[in-house]
Design a protein that fits this description.
The chain is mainly alpha-helical. It contains 8 helices and 2 strands. A hairpin with a 2-residue loop joins strand 1 and strand 2. It is globular.
Length: 297
């Protein structure tokens, strides 16, 4: 089974068409216990071997009881790399949203621009998803256009439900923080079975929502159908947010395994890209949920 997130299905976040680390604990510089091997131990990765193996001073350092000095740069992805790239990507989304909110008043024209920005963001995301290597320009471009879309949509919601975007941001942060806490505490174990069940639910949800959209467009289902602003819409929104949290656990697991396996440093951009898409999903669903609970003011 491949990753739920297309950017994580690239080399480094999956191996043998499976989730990295789900079936065996990673071992730096060598194959994992079991039948699946470290994807970075092959393919010309110069850092798969012990960087001190050819260091003439390594033995001398060890004899004096001091650990060998680490190289200045290992070329491997670290958590700091992921955090920094994620901050850049999410920062670009935020700047795009703020500019769109400030410069594009709520009107039919701004709605059209928002749809256009969303389509461009989608195209850039698909191009990056099918590339074998990370492209910072594509990722930041996606973030910028996604930000424009979110800015217009957020302003639209705020004009009817004052304060809804701010509450949605807080809600997104709360869901993300709680998911990270649950993951790090080990209360949720990301296994192959967990991923299969979650992906089955997620795929079924997307299919049902697509059918619902078609029914609404052709007038078969009125008032948004399953996406209404009533109790049913709230239940669907909560389910969508839970699916977003599920995606986050997969993201965390695959980033953790990528670091443990010595993924190339540039793949931190892919990690940031995937996290951004998941957080955008959660924010949009949270925005709708806040509007539902705020009532039709």
């Amino acid at each position: 089974m491949r990753s739920s997130n297309p950017v994580f299905s690239r080399r480094g976040f999956s191996r043998d068409n499976g989730y990295a680390g789900f079936n065996a604990a990673p071992q730096a510089g060598g194959p994992a216990v079991g039948t699946q091997a470290n994807p970075y131990a092959q393919g010309g990765n110069p850092y798969a071997q012990n960087p001190y193996a050819q260091n003439p001073y390594a033995q001398q350092d060890l004899q004096h009881g001091a650990p060998p000095q680490a190289p200045v740069s290992t070329g491997r992805m670290t958590m700091d790399d992921v955090v920094m790239r994620s901050a850049m990507t999410l920062g670009t989304v935020t700047v795009g949203a703020i500019l769109a909110w400030a410069l594009l008043p709520v009107s039919s024209t701004s709605y059209g621009l928002a749809i256009g920005a969303a389509l461009v963001a989608f195209v850039l995301a698909m191009v990056q998803s099918f590339k074998r290597t990370a492209s910072p320009a594509l990722i930041l471009g996606y973030a910028a256009f996604e930000g424009v879309f979110l800015g217009v949509v957020s302003e639209m919601y705020n004009s009817r439900w004052s304060g809804a975007p701010f509450q949605a941001v807080l809600g997104t942060m709360a869901v993300s923080g709680a998911t990270l806490l649950v993951y790090k505490a080990g209360w949720v174990r990301v296994t192959a079975r967990y991923a299969r069940i979650g992906m089955t639910i997620a795929i079924a949800f997307v299919v049902v929502m697509a059918v619902n959209l078609l029914l609404v467009v052709f007038g078969v289902a009125g008032d948004g159908g399953l996406r209404s602003m009533g109790p049913l819409g709230a239940i669907v929104g909560i389910l969508a947010i839970l699916i977003g949290a599920f995606f986050l656990t997969l993201d965390f697991k695959q980033i953790e395994d990528g670091i443990a396996y010595g993924a190339p440093k540039e793949e931190a951009w892919l990690a940031a890209f995937g996290l951004t898409m998941t957080l955008v999903w959660i924010y949009i669903e949270m925005l709708r949920l806040v509007a539902i609970f705020s009532g039709d003011d």
